[in-house]
Amino acid sequence: MTVVTLDVRSLEDTLADVAQVCQTAQPDTGPRISFATPALLWQVLTARRWDLLKALTGQPPMSLRQAARRAGRDVKAVHGDVHALLKAGVLTKTAEGKIAFPYDGIHVDFTLHAA
Predict the structure, then answer these.
(1) d(CA 113, CA 68)
(2) Which domains does the chain have, with CATH numbers?
(3) If the chain, 115 residues long, is cut into consecutive pieces of 10 residues, what is the mean pLDDT of each piece?
(4) Are the beta carbons of 62 and 78 closer than 8 angstroms?
């Protein structure tokens, strides 16, 4: 089972992890998609987009129409959400033009610290 971690990390932390992986040649974790701020994470992962990701999780690549059908939503509305998720790097597009979310699960990880 492949689980992607969505997290909030500074660019410095991300670059430090990349340097660590380059030095050790061992990745520290599985797939990860990072956002610079909590606000950006929630801007990209709206409630509707989260529902769309739930519909795509564990599924093979599919057409926009199939994704809309699985999510129980209008194709036009799903098109906008797919575009936003593609732009953020959460979804990918296959050579055939299908949308893909190649993960069986999603883990969201961030910590709120006192101001």
Answers:
(1) 37
(2) 3-109 (1.10.10.10)
(3) 88 75 72 89 95 96 98 96 96 97 91 79
(4) no
